[in-house]
Amino acid sequence: MKEIKIGLVGCGAVAPTHINSYKQIPGATVKTICDIKRDKAAAMAAKLGVPNFTENFTDMLNDPEIDLIDICTDHASHSPLAVAAMDAGKNVVCEKCLSNTLEGLDAMLAAHKKHPELVFSGIFQHRHEKANLLLKKLLDRGCFGQILNASVYLCCLRPDAYYSDYWHGKWNGEGGSVLITQVVHFIDLVNYFLGAPTSVVAQCDNMAHQGVIETEDNAAALVRYPNGVFATICGTSASAVDKGFNATVIIGGTKGHIELAAFRPVYWRFHDKQAEEEVAALMKDYHEETPPDPEKPHYGGAHPAQLADVVDAVRNHREPYVTVEKAAVTARLILSCYKSAKTGDWINL
């Protein structure tokens, strides 16, 4: 089995989750980590047992042993880093959201089209969780009948201190706030379940972080999917809920209905007896996967599964389960929400 060696760039909050995930994957090794702050990279390398660190991204691009570049930086740098990596012949996995602009997103997709032999995946780890994989199977089997509607609701708290760095809460850095950074995972699940949306109208506001952020802490959207299905999206990062995320995803159809809270089924009804039994059996023995970074339990425990799939895709020259094109559908929807909020118009996708 070929050893896949990884160069990880960006030693921020999500990096330990990725590094600890690779430790669980046979035949995967994080060889080098990179951050523009050399002391930050050095400290993380020492803490997590990574043999090499650098402040120069091109060091990893010029290393012939590195097969995969893992991008864990701020949103604004995702696109230029991914494009540079693919132009250097490296496979890429990039954290959400793929880009903070539509232009950056298009540049990433164009680079992959130019280098189709390379693996390029976007991180949406919740697509790999047991409950969501089962739900997708039931949807594909037609157990919901005609899909009628879907909804997403998320509330969490991001205090002022969260936005004290150079990029969070800034349009040219984060590209938004609660939609692009917190609600994005739940919107992606609806896309995973229902397919690519066709249009969206949205409103955003900064209601509780005045003078702290440029972007939104409260947002709502109406998303149209094929066959006339609508989904409602509502999220806030200024809630009284100050521990983790309080999030609900609902999918409703003529023959099936399910409600997920924190990514696990809490209520379901199906006309199909087998579907009812499959969900009940899953929940009977259900247990949460252990998060790779105990300090970030709200990330869930599915990063190892997604990164294992990416490593296998690189090794076997195949598409990953979450292709960049699939991840881009969600990124484009998020960015189009902001465009709609500025213009007041429906945006076609």
Protein described:
This protein is of the alpha/beta class. It folds into 2 domains: 4-124 and 304-321, NAD(P)-binding Rossmann-like Domain (Rossmann fold), CATH 3.40.50.720; 126-298 and 329-348, Dihydrodipicolinate Reductase, domain 2 (2-Layer Sandwich). It has 10 helices and 14 strands. The chain has helices at residues 15-23, 38-48, 57-61, 75-87, 102-114, 130-140, 178-194, 273-284, 303-316, 324-343, and strands at residues 4-9, 28-34, 52-54, 68-71, 91-94, 120-122, 147-155, 199-205, 218-224, 230-236, 246-253, 256-261, 264-270, 347-348. The longest helix has 20 residues, at 324-343. The chain is globular, with a radius of gyration of 20 Å. The model has no long low-confidence stretch (mean pLDDT 96).
Could you name the key traits of this structure?
Rossmann fold; alpha/beta; Dihydrodipicolinate Reductase, domain 2; globular; 2 domains
